[in-house]
């Protein structure tokens, strides 16, 4: 029977194989660490091999000699920038697509606070997808819907992790002139299962249902180092790095195994644009570092450069070189915590409240602070 991966490190969980299967012979199964992995139903599989053809881990993109351009970007509209995780480049791109009567795909919370990719049609819906979510999103059905929109000759903007964007490219098999792909400078994707447990923990702690969680709130003008969430209609806020879930994330205890071997941690991408936080802005352009965020933008394709010309009047920006933007996740993948195996082993057997206490021991606050200051 066909297997899509031999080791957990060989599956990034993008879900392209799920959508490409015409016999619906693949389903995503949650493992003991809370990550989704594809499983093939041997009674339905016809061994066509299409699932392997769309795998971003197995299929490497063609090497291209491109003249990339690098920018630091801030949206001129203050509300747009304030409500974004970085400098507001994604909402500006979304508005461009809306003006073409197109649709936008990004990560949003569903009614149970699970993170899923969702189709957005206008500015009013955009808030749901324009903030960072430190959770791996579900892409079930999204590849199929994007292909259908493109065949209807609609404009489509897709924003996701590099492996999701590459999965989409492989799924579609051919370029579409009205498709804009944007990938993120990605630290790594944490476990959806652990996120779900954390939501339940906070709901139990505060006695209500969670309806929102902002990982990168800017109310303190601290470059998004505040997080805030709403449970039972009441808002709670505090330091991003004091939040228990974020601490597990940033100490590398809950990242997907494939993230520690990710081949996309480079400036060489197959997407049209790459966006993320502009790390080191205080060194490259200190006069614009006001604590409200600056986007790093990399243009990879001619299409991206044409779109840039169309939207640049909505932005405050400066051009820079590759050496100015080479933050860690554009130079290599995130290393696994040495105690990750111990942590995940206990996660499988201990109540979640005890897991949080265990991490206080394993995830040294001193080590975390040292990492943040780098």
Present the secondary structure layout:
Blueprint: H1 16-20, E1 26-30, E2 36-40, H2 50-53, E3 69-75, H3 78-82, H4 89-99, E4 103-109, E5 115-120, H5 123-126, H6 142-151, E6 156-160, H7 162-172, E7 179-184, H8 192-206, E8 210-217, E9 226-231, E10 234-239, H9 244-250, E11 273-277, H10 281-284, E12 295-299, H11 302-311, E13 315-320, H12 322-325, H13 340-347, H14 352-362, H15 365-373
Parallel strand pairs: 4-6, 6-7, 7-11
Antiparallel strand pairs: 1-2, 3-12, 3-13, 4-5, 8-9, 9-10, 11-12
First and last CA, distance: 47 Å
- Could you tell me the number of beta strands? 13
Q: Report the sheet-strand fraction.
A: 15-25%
The shape, in one word, is globular
SSE topology string: HEEHEHHEEHHEHEHEEEHEHEHEHHHH
Q: Please, how many helices?
A: 15
Radius of gyration equals 20 Å
Low-confidence stretches: 365-374
**Largest sheet report:** 8 strands, mixed
Which short descriptors sum up this protein?
374 residues, alpha+beta, eight-stranded mixed sheet, three-stranded antiparallel sheet, 15 helices, 13 strands, globular, disordered C terminus
Word description of this protein:
- The protein has 15 helices and 13 strands.
- With 374 residues, it is of the alpha+beta class.
- The strands form 3 sheets. It has an 8-stranded mixed sheet with strand order 5-4-6-7-11-12-3-13, with helices on both faces.
- The radius of gyration is 20 Å and the shape is globular.
- The relative contact order is 0.16.
Short note summarizing the structure:
The chain has 374 residues and is α+β, with helices and mostly antiparallel strands. It has 15 helices and 13 strands.
């Amino acid at each position: 029977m066909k297997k899509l991966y031999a080791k957990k490190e060989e599956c990034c969980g993008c879900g392209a194989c799920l959508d490409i299967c015409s016999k619906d012979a693949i389903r995503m199964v949650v493992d003991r660490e809370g990550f989704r992995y594809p499983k093939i139903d041997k009674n339905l599989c016809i061994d066509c091999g299409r699932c392997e053809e769309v795998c971003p881990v197995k299929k490497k993109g063609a090497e291209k000699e491109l003249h990339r351009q690098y920018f630091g970007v801030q949206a001129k509209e203050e509300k747009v920038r304030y409500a974004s995780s970085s400098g507001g480049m994604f909402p500006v791109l979304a508005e461009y697509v809306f003006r073409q009567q197109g649709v936008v795909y990004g990560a949003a919370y569903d009614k149970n606070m699970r993170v899923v990719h969702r189709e957005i049609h206008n500015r009013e819906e955009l808030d749901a997808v324009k903030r960072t979510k430190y959770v791996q999103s579900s892409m079930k059905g999204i590849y199929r819907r994007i292909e259908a929109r493109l065949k209807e000759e609609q404009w489509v903007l897709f924003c996701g992790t590099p492996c999701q964007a590459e999965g989409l490219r492989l799924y579609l098999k051919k370029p579409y002139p009205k498709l804009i792909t944007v990938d993120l400078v990605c630290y790594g994707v944490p476990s959806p299962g652990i996120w779900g447990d954390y939501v339940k923990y906070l709901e139990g702690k505060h006695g209500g249902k969670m309806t929102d969680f902002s990982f990168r709130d800017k109310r303190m003008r601290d470059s998004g180092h505040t997080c805030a969430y709403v449970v039972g209609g009441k808002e709670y806020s505090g330091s991003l790095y004091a939040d228990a879930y974020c601490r597990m994330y940033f100490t590398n205890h809950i990242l997907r195994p494939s993230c520690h071997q990710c081949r996309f941690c480079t400036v060489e991408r197959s997407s049209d644009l790459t966006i993320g936080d502009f790390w080191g802005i205080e060194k490259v352009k200190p006069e614009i570092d006001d604590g409200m965020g600056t986007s790093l933008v990399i243009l990879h394709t001619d299409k991206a450069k044409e779109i840039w010309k169309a939207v640049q009047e909505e932005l405050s920006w400066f051009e820079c070189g590759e050496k100015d933007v080479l933050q860690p996740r554009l130079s290599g993948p995130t290393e696994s915590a040495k105690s990750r195996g111990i942590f995940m082993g206990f996660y499988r057997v201990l109540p979640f409240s005890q897991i949080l206490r265990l991490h206080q021991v394993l995830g040294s606050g001193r080590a975390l602070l040292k990492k943040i200051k780098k």
